[in-house]
Amino acid sequence: MVHFSAEEKAAITSLWGKVNVEDAGGEALGRLLVVYPWTQRFFDNFGNLSSASAIMGNPKVKAHGKKVLTSFGDAVKNMDNLKGTFAKLSELHCDKLHVDPENFRLLGNVLVCVLNSFSDGLKNLDNLKGTFAKLSELHCDKLHVDPENFKLLGNVLVCVLARHFGREFTPLAQAAYQKVVAGVANALAHKYH
Amino acid sequence: MLSAQERAQVAQVWDLIAGHEAAFGAELLLRLFTVYPSTKTYFPHLGSCADKAQLLSHGRRMLEAVGVAVQHLDNLRAALRPLADLHAQVLRVDPSNFPLLIQCFQVVLASHLQDEFTVEMQAAWDKFLTGVAVVLTEKYR
Questions:
Q1: Which letter, b or e, does each residue of A160-193 get, where b requires 16 or more Cβ atoms within 10 Å of its Cβ?
Q2: What residues does the Globin domain cover (chain B) (predicted)?
Q3: Would you call B123 an interface residue with chain A, using a CB distance cutoff of 8 Å?
């Protein structure tokens, strides 16, 4: 299990509060698709990905990036309060999606499912594995995503944060966030079989 | 390996680093040791708590080598041969560490250049550094 010191949590939370989730998410996903073009394999239905500018300006990339980052920010907090409330909705959507063969609709709908399961804010980093258990099963069983991709996206997200915060993104801040993205990547890979 | 456009991007980034090799190199090493402490095992001569002078000195040497690579994009193997030999015979840095250094390099660039650090620059620089890492580890076996 990943352990975060009080200083690390403080660094993580204070920076995250200033992140524009909408912009950073689209930026991170766009950079992932440009810098590591093989990751485009999951997004055939996203339209024009023919050039860097096409990718960075693609509205589906921006929207999807926003979803992923919102989920990232939401999901690292303790889900205990929300699990009961949203369990039925979550299961219902996931069960319905299991019979839907189209990847794109699956991905889009499942993300809505995931988003409905969480609330805002990086609160509790102490239970990443539990928090991401269902997402992990999903990425293995339905989405067929190599866990290496989670590391790539995590690293790109760190670069986006560095770009945004400049000198404020100190080595200690980088260390804390690399730890978070590594923890999330591991948690997402945990249920693979 | 690198297209003409990518070479231009690499050169553009290097223009921003040139003259500041020590500062960039020192920050690169500081981030590497802070974020990935296991990498310190390859720098015992820097001591367990490398001081600023040591980081600047070693950092400059590393970035100067990157500068050599930038000047010889057409023939990395020849230009980096002594370094490749050094890594294969003496340093023997496990290849898995190079992506860690590359990630820290990207973060240094992103935090310094911010809005100027375009996605094209990031892609070209990543491809370039990965190519350098391949050359440096090619002779391992």
A1: bbbbbbeeebbbebbbbbbbbbbbbbbbbbbbee
A2: 1-141
A3: yes
A181 backbone dihedrals φ, ψ, rounded to 5°: -65, -35
* Chain A touched by B112 (CB under 8 Å): yes
Tokens of B58: 């070693």
List helix spans (H) across chain B: 4-17, 21-35, 52-71, 76-79, 81-86, 98-113, 119-137
With CB atoms and an 8 Å threshold, state whether B106 touches A159.
yes
Query: Which of B104, B111, B119 is facing A30, going by the closest CB pair?
Result: B119
- What pTM, to 2 d.p., does this model score? 0.78
Nearest-angstrom CA–CA distance, B27 and B41: 18
Query: CA nearest A156 in B: which residue?
Result: B103
Q: How far is the C-alpha of B76 from the C-alpha of B92, rounded, in Å?
A: 19
B77-134 per-position pLDDT tens digit = 999 999 999 999 999 898 999 999 999 999 999 999 999 999 999 999 999 999 999 9
ipTM of the complex, rounded to two decimals: 0.82
Q: What ranges in A17-127 are assigned the alpha helix state H? A: 21-35, 52-57, 59-75, 80-98, 103-117
Query: Rounded distance, CA A140 to CA A188, Å?
Result: 9
Rg of chain A over all Cα atoms, to the nearest angstrom: 16
Question: What is the count of residue pairs from A and B with beta carbons less than 8 Å apart?
Answer: 62
